[in-house]
Amino acid sequence: MQQYSNINTLTIKEAQAMLESGEITSLDLTKACLDRIKEIDGRVKACLTVCEKEALAEAKLADLRRSNGETGRLLGIPYLAKDNILTKGIRTTASSKILDNYIAPFDATVVKKLKEAGAVLLGKTNLDEFAHGASTENSAYGHTHNPWDLERVPGGSSGGSAAAVAADMCIFALGTDTGGSIRQPASFCGVNGLKLTYGRASRFGLVAMTSSTDVPGPITKTAEDAMLVLKVIEGVDENDATTLKGASKNSKIDSLKGMKIGLPKEYFDEGMDKNVSSVINGVIEKFKEMGAEFTQVSLPHTKYAVPVYYIITPSEVSSNLARFDGIRYGFSTKEAKDLMEVYTKSRGDGFGPETKRRIMLGTYALSSGYYDAYYLKAQKVRTIIKDEIDKALNEVDLILTPTSPHIAFKIGEQSNDPLKMYLEDIYVTTPSLAGLPAVSIPAGFADSMPVGIQLIGKRFDEETILGVAEAYQEETNYHKRKPIIK
After folding, report:
1. What residues does 123 pair with on adjacent strands?
2. Which long-range contacts (CB under 8 A, 24 or more apart) does 16-21 make?
3. Which of 96, 158, 181, 202 is labelled catalytic?
4. Which of 172, 242, 161, 162 is CA-nearest to residue 201?
5. DSSP codes joined into one string, 237-258
6. pLDDT tens digits along 285-329
7. Is 245 within the bounds of a domain?
8. CA nearest neighbour of 266 among 303, 294, 293
9. One of 31, 45, 82, 124 is an active-site residue; which one?
10. Can you tell me whether residue 102 is helix, strand or coil?
11. What's the CATH code of the domain at 143?
12. Structural domain total, the chain
């Protein structure tokens, strides 16, 4: 068989075509991705665990399935998964020392579905500890670097997955999005990140952060690839009562003529970097050339989205992390001889500073005398935010915003300023609080770094935002540009 170089740079669609024609095998593709990880991950540090032996075995099985006449959207396609998604027999740490030795006894539902579809798991990617962060600097195992500039952050908390896709270590990756954790790193790394409608895919097997907004989702090289992954991982799961019936339709849109896109005036303020603003304005003009019509919408309560999110999220974090006592997860029987000693060590030293901060904030917000003043009031404002954006979407087909007000910042630049770090979520928390689908796609460059735009859709209407994204990518090449890793 002819040998091809750089096949790790393929999209899912391109890889599918070559696998189906017999030009390459899944084993070829998997080896190419593993070689790329070995070549550059020492500098990028996107991966926490690489399961080479298991991946090669899965690739051989995928080739056997294909030789027996089986076909499938993701059969033989190698991917990486964020390390807060459970994988049977493979370590899952959530980037926390408290789970340093934890090996899950079962696969998360999304991983199970990918395995059934024949996708090949290469390993697990770095993240902010328990997904608490917007830079992947909060990991207990060191920070990940942005492939476009190794001195900058990749975003977070799915920074490892976004960096891995940008650096072609895999064909696609899985992340999780609670308040922007797929979209913001996708923007910083110049890739496509899809936050699903809450309930579209199962949360079963995710290490829970904020149960009312957590969603798994794909990080891909094209918007079209995001739909291919969505069609595999979506659907009802008896282990997750929040999942709903429904299957994705074709996202292809022939023309944007007559498409109505809303621009929320509150998102285009002085807080945006002028170079990012210039890129966004260029995107709007491009959409107009393609036939889209723009109208201004107002989301006056969007200014409360970040404070509401940072009351609700720590509150649910404090509840969800109560189970990690250092006894049930990550420690052997021998290590747990003195349970109290282990408890003290793991709770004190096992959790990092940001995780401790969120536990304390959440415990305070839920405590007697403060519940009504903080948590209950935040939930009421959340309902207003949801109703407000739903009303705006009744007037338009989708809403366009920046994904982030600036490009990726330097590593360490914001580490000592938690409030500034929380404000990283300023454009991405509203869709999360409302449970809406949103995608970040590459839109251009500012100071040689990627800039993303966010498309927000109606509930369970991923098809429209991905269809518009695909149409835009047919007219531009920002998503095709690759970083040069030095």
Report:
1. 50, 80
2. 16/73, 16/77, 19/66, 19/75, 19/76, 20/71
3. 181
4. 242
5. BTTBTT-----------S--TT
6. 999 999 999 999 999 999 999 999 999 999 998 888 887 755 555
7. yes
8. 303
9. 82
10. coil
11. 3.90.1300.10
12. 1
82 is catalytic: yes
- Within 167-292, residue ranges assigned H as helices are 183-189, 223-233, 274-289
Residue 2 is assigned to a structural domain of this protein: no
42 residue type, one letter: G
> Cα–Cα distance between 292 and 285 in angstroms, integer?
9
Q: Is the pTM of this model over 0.85?
A: yes
Catalytic position from the list 26, 95, 96, 157: 157
With beta carbons less than 8 A apart as the criterion, state whether 357 and 418 touch.
yes
Please check whether residue 147 is in contact with residue 189, taking contact to mean a CB–CB distance below 8 angstroms. Answer: yes
Are the beta carbons of 396 and 297 closer than 8 angstroms? yes
CA atoms within 13 A on the CB side of 275: 11
Amino acid at 393: L
Give how far Cα 162 sits from Cα of 40, 159, 318, 369, 486, Å. Answer: 15, 5, 27, 41, 18
Is residue 181 among the annotated active site residues?
A: yes
- 46/166 Cα distance (integer angstroms): 10
**Residue pair 157/122 in contact by the 8 Å Cβ criterion:** no
Range of 150's domain?
A: 7-254+439-480
pLDDT, tens digit, 9 for 90 and up, residues 402-454? 999 999 999 999 877 777 776 788 999 999 999 999 999 999 999 999 999 99
Residue 157: active-site member:
yes
Q: Is residue 229 part of a domain?
A: yes
- 242 in a domain, yes or no? yes
The answer to whether residues 29 and 7 touch, using CB atoms and an 8 Å cutoff, is yes
